[in-house]
């Protein structure tokens, strides 16, 4: 995660100088084409502790997290980890 922290922190500094905001991403937002099982997909979910550490170290304005969402069309009923989202919210 270290390079991502360093890069994001630098982008935040550049953005602040111009009045822009920064949305960073942790975890993996799968593509609809992936077709993985839920257990396998959860391995890519954003870690709650890591999210808190990342936001405090980078000062990003928004954080895109992986909780079971995908880019594109859902091929089956999504199972979103709302508890994880709440835990991330509470942490950051």
TrEMBL record:
Set out the biological process GO terms recorded for this chain's protein: carbohydrate metabolic process
Any GO MF annotation of the entry: zinc ion binding
Classify the source by domain of life. Bacteria
For this protein, the record's InterPro entries field holds: Aldolase_TIM, Class_II_FBP_aldolase, FBA_II
So which cofactors does this thing need? Zn(2+)
Residues annotated as coiled-coil are none
> What's the protein name?
Fructose-bisphosphate aldolase
- Which species is this record about? Paenibacillus albidus
């Amino acid at each position: 995660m270290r390079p991502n922290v360093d890069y994001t922190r630098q982008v935040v500094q550049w953005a602040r100088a111009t009045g822009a905001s920064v949305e960073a991403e942790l975890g993996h937002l799968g593509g609809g084409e992936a077709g993985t099982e839920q257990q396998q997909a959860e391995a890519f979910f954003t870690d709650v502790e890591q999210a808190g550490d990342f936001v405090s170290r980078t000062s990003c304005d928004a954080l895109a997290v992986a909780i079971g969402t995908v880019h594109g069309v859902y091929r089956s009923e999504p199972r979103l980890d709302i508890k994880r989202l709440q835990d991330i919210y509470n942490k950051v």
